[in-house]
Amino acid sequence: MQYAFVSGLAAWRLGTLSTSRIAPIYVTSMESSARGRQARTGRGPSQKRQTSGDARNGAPSGSLPHRGVRRPPSSSSFGDDTPPRRRVRTDETLEASISASMKSLPSKELHIPEGDGIKFESLPIHPLTMRAIKEVFKYETCSPVQERTLPIILKGKDVLAKARTGTGKTIAFMLPVIETLVEHPRIGPDRVSIRALILSPTRELAYQIEAEAKKLLTFHNLTTACFVGGVGINKDIARLKSRVDILVATPGRMEDHIKNTDGFKNRLGGVHYLVLDEGDHLMDQGFKPAIDRIILCLPKVRRSLCFSATVPQGLSEVLGSALRYDHVTVDCTEGDGLGDTHDATKVRQGVATVDLENVNVSVCTVIAAEMMNNPEEYKIIVFLPTARQAQFFAELLNAWLSAPTSPVGRNHPEVLEIHSRKSMSNRTKTSDQFRSAKRAVLVSSDVSARGVDYPDVSFVLQVGAPSSREQYVHRLGRTGRAGKAGRGLLMLHDFERFFFDNVKSLPMDKTVGDEVPQALARFPEALATVPDALDRVEQQTKEQTYQAWLGFYNSSLKSLRWDKEDLVLKAAEMASLQLGLDEPPALMAKTVGMMGLKGVPGLRIAGRNESFGGGSARGRGNNSGQGGRGGGGGGGGRGRSQHGGRN
Q1: EC number(s) in its UniProt entry (predicted)?
Q2: What distance lies between CA 5 and its chain's CA centroid?
Q3: Within 413-495, where are the H helices?
């Protein structure tokens, strides 16, 4: 049995624990829970005065003062019996003491071995929560991540949990949040403060977290709300007229409310719990500055948790202010079979390279083969680098599969698409539809690459080079989950061979890569029917795809070993061979400038030449070469321009 040491020195130096609690604390995966509730609520004689206020506000009595809920601010709406000046001085004294004496201490790493499985009923949780776990979730035993984290979190510790997606981590952090709020109900006039804040990197994950929270709260009288971008902010404001106990939000929408919604910042003064979910992804999305500013609006005394697969430098800096100095790190990724290379090893995968001329037909035939190989049950996700490319392939697949010449016949579901260009309500509906389907194809940008859990995904196709090895693994991780088999195929353009160096250490299965030429051989008629389907893809979609393609590869010039002229020439080739356009669409001068492509030969600038139309690339051209509504226009024939569309 392995043990891990957690120092009691921090508590001793603050004078908040009796000498009997200075002794080292040893934690094992099967530690008895007999002290559970008493340990979180008990109070010794010497601690009475120090802890009574904290106990009222959500801090476990008899334990080290932590970032639990701060005593309410001096506003009449949030007052209590303690004079405001004294309250502020107490918090400042605590923080100064922590900063001066313990700032340099690292967190203690815990490695808790898996036992035979901890049953939820052995944990000190509320009977109504237990009822939801049994009756709604129908769970009896904790997942490995829950087993390793819940006993620690329920003791009142701030925790950094290294955990992957799809491991049950939502319950691992949401259950302690609910327990804290249930045990410490609102006091006096404090009827409007937000009591728990969960930050999510994506809208889809935020909605998923709230859905899990609502299930856990089935038999409790606690409320949730979810604030994300893509939804009118007035809807949030209307929701704030009622009580919000648990708020799940994206950092961008949180900042919007803090800056612009009257009274919102004050309502954060009652936060008991802060949770950062998918911490590394929050950093990937560039949310570090926003999170830093959000934390400044929260009480200094609160409970905090972070769940993240990895801990990049930016996240480490955030955790310095988010978590207590003596927080515990629980590594749930070692040997979990779901980590970076472990996850990739678990899934059959392969790589194939195709040229631009054959990308469309390769994608269509590979998808058709997968559908026909498993006609009764298939769930396929196709990942593209950009939202517009996802839109393009969704339209192309729907046009091809719904045609009279479709190899799969008419009895197949519509191809779904989900990406940032869709409204939030549409994305939620699509996500739910795909999640519950037995047969479905979902074309997605990276909004579905991590965090969102889709059960029973049988095949993941990645078209184009992912932004990194990590992104490749996260996408691949949508399949082969919960012990089920899965398969993944990476389809690289011929100029993206460099990316293979990022994944060559993974066990690539040549037979999976061979599925591309096999599918083409299986459906030879696709060489004629896919171009026919391409004609039915919206012109506007093609033009937007061209612009998105140009922007995406503009950020990878070093890896591609291209200069700006190479990029523009390859984009023109893509417009002709993949999009079926007569010439590259015209771009707004502002767009060209923002891409750093001003003056690069081969680009068409809207409004610079009458024959190219006078609108932006967002519109649709007509056969006379005139620009449509906001459109860049397009020539009437099929042939390519001799000058490549140069100005």
Answers
A1: 3.6.4.13
A2: 33
A3: 424-436, 469-476
3-class state of residue 164 by DSSP: coil
Q: What does residue 316 show for φ and ψ, rounded to 5 degrees?
A: -60, -40
pLDDT tens digits, residue range 208-233?
999 999 999 999 999 999 999 888 89
> Rounded to whole angstroms, how far apart are CA atoms 401 and 420?
24
Q: Tell me, what amino acid is at 324? A: R
> How many CB atoms are closer than 10 A to CB 487?
21
Mean pLDDT check: name the lowest of 472-476, 577-581, 634-638. Answer: 634-638
Confidence of residue 2 (pLDDT cuts 50, 70, 90): very low
- At 247, phi and psi to the nearest 5? -110, 125
Q: Is the pTM of this model over 0.90?
A: no
Closest among 464, 463, 441, 465 to 454, alpha carbons compared: 441
- Extended beta strands in 344-454, E state: 348-354, 378-383, 416-418, 439-444
20, HSE (Cβ side, Cα atoms, 13 Å): 5
For tokens 């006609």, name the residue. 375
- Total residues belonging to the chain: 647
Lookup: tokens for 568: 């523009």
Please, what are the domains in the chain?
A: 120-331 (3.40.50.300), 347-537 (3.40.50.300), 540-606 (no CATH)
260: left (phi over 0), alpha (psi -120 to 50) or beta: alpha
Question: How many other CB atoms are found less than 10 A from the CB of residue 423?
Answer: 10
Given a contact cutoff of 8 angstroms between Cβ atoms, the answer to whether 371 and 528 are in contact is no
Distances (CA, A) of 35 to 122, 194, 383: 11, 30, 48
